[in-house]
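>> received
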Amino acid sequence: MSRRMLQSVSFLGIANFVVFFIAAVYLGGDALNGRIIDGHYFLASHGRLTEVKQAVFVYSEWHARSLFVTHPLALLCGWLSNRHSKNPD
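>> returned
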């Protein structure tokens, strides 16, 4: 895999985390820490619940779960890119 491709994947993983962080701050938390109570959807951040529509809750849940893939992938690609730059065979 080329160094440029590794850097691009790493950048996209970092960008996904930044967008998740901004969205969580703006929305009042995330769904993985939130809960559903009697058909009401709540995002949570530091113990504070924010009621949101179901669509927002589902978006937050999927975006948070995507970090479990993109974050390790970004770290791995960053490490491989760094390794590639030290040993460009």
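>> The chain has a mean pLDDT of 94.
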